[in-house]
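Q: I'm building a small set of examples for a reading group on sequence design. Run inverse folding on the following structure and report the sequence directly after it, with nothing in between.
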């Protein structure tokens, strides 16, 4: 069934240039594009799927000049609803998934220039042929464009940083002037010549332009790694362990993940087997790795064993499992699904300075007890960098007003009391726009507002308003 109200001349022009695979107008075929991984689903009037940078610029010009509204979508793995259309059915989805015209690896420069429809796994498959990797590591397989737009972090941020630290250049299409191509493919690590599009568009959640191509740093693949899963007395001991590991093994530390007793119990229940012999109040997965192969004098496994043995003598550690990295990471990656299998889940993606992690966690427990007393806290996350997935199972009949009250109180504690972030990794979207408006300092919002009105004066692009939302500019949230 076709969509009503579409400008048929526009549809014909797009169909003629992009071909049958480049345009979706049948509502059944549109439906898979209408929701994102977690929050956010709406209705779109059509989907366009350009396959080259030139076609991307052309179709943006056509849509914007015709007065249409467009939301850019990569793999829709974003968790704040920003890649989904609004509910009124007036937005076009611009899917980047066919934008796969360039994937060029320069092994000497250790860079890749990649069209944004490629997935992280595609890039890494090709990079591996040169002994290289794009080291942003997460439990989803997003597009490169979505990663740039959301400045994706991941489990190895403690070693490599997020996308922003690994992005050298990009090419993007603006909506003002409509279809204008900007940026470059320059693989320069040094280019100190003023502001550029790269850092302006990275982490702007699709609000300022559509990224078509990115040039990123690649790193040597890790040729040896050693991991341990360590049960500790408390979250405070976990943080102390992170500092001690960094002091001893420095740049070899590549991940330091935390898991609460609730998360461990959920995994045990899900897998039918306890992780540790005795229940543990908290646990950490720690990883050290190096591009230096084994057999060359560097033996990380025995270094880690020796460090652990010494550290255990100092107390605070209850148990430790040293096993193959894949085996231990499987436990870490099982948490999300295990918690969801327990029933309704509420999740908050927050960060605090590592030094406040334990006291923040106590405060979070107190707030959960106050607002949703029957919730079971199953938090986990990248505590090496202060990131926490404050996930909890809640009873089926939990009132949404109670969850909202908890969210408000929790974010206030995170941002105001603990100088943290209400969105550590997942960025800004309709799910948390109101908190962006609340916590972003006014001068910064004014600058963002000026940029947004320059780059998208009629608010035709996306569902994120970095200048802040008013009811008039965006009635369909
Ligand atoms: C299981 C799971 C685990 C995750 N783990 C992590 C994690 O560890 N760290 C982390 O940071 N995130 C994580 N995420 C969130 C998510 O994967 C990232 O935000 C991701 O990089 C989004 O990429 P995408 O291609 O799916 O983008 P989408 O979800 O399609 O889009 C996200 C946003 O980017 C915009 N956008 C997409 N492509 C472009 C483009 N080419 N130009 C301009 N704007 C664009 C969209 O409009 C939207 O605002 C996880 C998600 C899941 C489902």
């Amino acid at each position: 069934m076709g969509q009503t109200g579409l400008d048929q001349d526009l549809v014909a022009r797009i169909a003629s240039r992009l071909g049958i695979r480049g345009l979706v107008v049948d509502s059944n075929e549109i439906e898979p594009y209408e929701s994102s991984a977690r929050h956010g689903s709406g209705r779109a009037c059509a989907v366009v799927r350009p396959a080259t940078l030139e076609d991307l610029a052309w179709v943006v010009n056509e849509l914007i000049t015709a007065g249409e509204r467009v939301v850019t979508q990569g793999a829709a793995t974003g968790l704040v609803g920003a890649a989904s259309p609004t509910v009124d059915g007036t937005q076009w989805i611009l899917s980047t998934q066919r934008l796969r015209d360039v994937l060029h690896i320069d092994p000497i420069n250790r860079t890749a220039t990649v069209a944004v429809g490629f997935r992280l796994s595609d890039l890494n498959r090709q990079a591996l042929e040169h002994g290289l990797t794009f080291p942003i590591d997460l439990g989803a397989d997003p597009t490169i464009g979505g990663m740039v737009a959301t400045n994706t972090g991941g489990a190895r941020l403690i070693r490599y940083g997020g996308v922003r630290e690994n992005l050298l250049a990009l090419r993007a299409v603006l909506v003002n002037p409509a279809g204008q191509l900007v940026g470059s493919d320059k693989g320069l690590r040094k280019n100190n010549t003023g502001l550029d599009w790269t850092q302006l568009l990275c982490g702007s959640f699709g609000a300022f332009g559509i990224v078509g191509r990115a040039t990123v740093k690649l790193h040597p693949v890790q040729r040896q790694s050693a991991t341990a899963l360590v049960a500790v007395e408390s979250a405070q001991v976990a943080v102390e362990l992170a500092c001690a590991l960094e002091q001893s093994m420095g740049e070899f530390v590549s991940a330091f993940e935390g898991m609460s007793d609730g998360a461990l119990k959920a995994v045990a229940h899900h897998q039918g087997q306890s992780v540790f012999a005795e229940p543990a109040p908290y646990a950490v997965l720690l990883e050290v790795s190096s591009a230096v192969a084994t057999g060359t004098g560097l033996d990380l496994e025995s270094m880690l064993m020796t460090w652990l043995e010494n550290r255990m003598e100092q107390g605070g550690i209850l148990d430790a499992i040293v096993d193959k990295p894949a085996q231990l990471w499987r436990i870490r990656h099982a948490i999300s699904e295990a918690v969801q299998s327990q029933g309704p889940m509420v999740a908050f993606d927050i960060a605090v300075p590592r030094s406040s992690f334990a006291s923040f966690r106590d405060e979070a427990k107190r707030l959960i007890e106050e607002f949703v007393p029957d919730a079971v806290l199953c938090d986990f996350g990248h505590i090496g960098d202060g990131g926490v997935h404050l996930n909890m199972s809640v009873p089926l009949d939990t009132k949404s007003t109670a969850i909202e009250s908890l969210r408000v109180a929790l974010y206030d504690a995170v941002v105001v009391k603990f100088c943290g972030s209400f969105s550590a990794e997942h960025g800004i979207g309709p799910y948390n726009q109101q908190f962006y408006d609340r916590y972003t300092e006014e001068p910064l919002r004014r600058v963002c507002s000026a940029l947004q009105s320059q780059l998208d004066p009629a608010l035709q692009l996306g569902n994120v308003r970095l200048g802040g939302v008013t009811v008039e500019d965006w009635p369909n949230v």
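The chain has four domains: 8-95, 103-220, 224-337, 343-417.
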